[in-house]
Amino acid sequence: MNLQVTKENPTGQAGENNLYSASNRQGVCRLCRSPLKTSLVDLGMSPLCESFVAAQRLDQMEPYYPLRALVCGECFLVQLSEYVKPEHIFTEYAYFSSYSTSWVEHARQYCEMAKARFGLASNSKVFEIASNDGYLLQHFLPLNIPVIGIEPAANVAAVARQKGIPTLVEFFGLDLARRLASEGQRADLIIGNNVLAQVPDLNDFVAGMANLIAPNGVITLEFPHLERLIEENQFDTIYHEHFSYFSVVTIERLANKHGLKLFDVEQLPTHGGSLRVYLCGVDAGHATSPRVNALLAHEREIGFEDIGTYAQFAASVHRTKRQLLSFLIECKEKGAKLCGYGAPGKGNTLLNYCGIGTDFLDFTVDRNPYKQGLYTPGMHIPIHPVSAIDEARPDYLLILPWNLKSEIIAQMRHVSEWGCKFIVPIPSVEVIDPRELVS
Predict the structure, then answer these.
(1) What is the three-state SS of 68-94?
(2) What H or E segment, with its residue span, contains residue 372?
(3) Per-residue pLDDT tens for 57-95?
(4) Rg (CA), the chain
(5) Under DSSP, is residue 264 helix (H, G, I), strand (E, B) or coil?
(6) I need a labelling partner for 288 at 20 to 30 A (CA). Which of 99, 145, 378, 422 fits?
(7) DSSP readout, 155-208?
(8) Nearest-CA neighbor of 190 among 80, 284, 93, 86?
């Protein structure tokens, strides 16, 4: 069974213990252990979104798992059941953060902000959990602030080490935190960008952070905001590698459970609309920002503590699927040539849920050489270098990482030379003609 195909592991062979048995997929909330009875949306059966397929594996079986998001009626955590061990998803990984220019710049600005706001200096200690290829920690090095990355994927951790970033190739949790703390490695700042959603054992993970921070230390976590997912129909951000989807209402419950205080929150444009939350120990000297209570009040007002609110999401997802397929069918009936741009996890959810294969897209491209030459999971769309777009000269480019549409359109604006237009699928189908954009 192919659980994770990479260029280093083209066969994708899995050991006998890679899958969880049914007994590991109990219908209880991973935060509060209450029974899960309400569905947010059912996206059918889907392969793992980062399990890219090597050419020699195209005629072999791929595992598919139910992709159904559930909502806890007690703590209101939106979550997926757990079908595959995180060790198998993230030990060898195809996502490298540094291939997004805008994301690297976002990280640089964060580092400068954190240094100024929290007075970080050469005697401070900064940890990043899921530090990937060093896209963020590299910006602390010229500031002379000591850093340690924690990254379970050995292939991306190796890239970080080449940049001079000390990186532990381990999964983070309470055991590792206690070991580091016993060695005197207490953190003045713990960073977790887009990792909380990828943690099946939330309580172990947050307990670990609570044990690792110094008495006046700070934890910042970034993750897509559930409000944006629901209001902007971002159903493609739901995939097996993301176990949970967060609101401030749920984050406050999670923090309080582990002796942490939510003292600030920022709303960010990244990943289609994210939150950056700031946590500290309950006895730490960080005053609570008015933004916390304001956003909590807002979420309660829009119904995030009313289980009935969540049941309305599925209808908009179904509508978007019909709309996108109708548009693509119309294009193909007129003889148009379509290609994709990007091979992100969210794109594979979209392609598999909507049934978009090579009957619609000739190929897709990606800046990440790690993915080039492979095929998308499930739909088996070939992934080429970006230069393939200029050779094929398609009529339309379907932007799969739509959260980066501005960056991509700026990079690919020259496709207007032959009349190519961009298709943005989320929240609803939008066609952008680069010839009509103001310089």
Answers:
(1) EEEEECCCCCEEECCCECHHHHHCCCC
(2) none
(3) 999 999 999 999 999 999 999 999 888 766 555 555 555
(4) 22
(5) strand
(6) 145
(7) HHHHHHHHTT--EE-S--SHHHHHHHHHTT--EEEEEEES-GGG-S-HHHHHHH
(8) 284
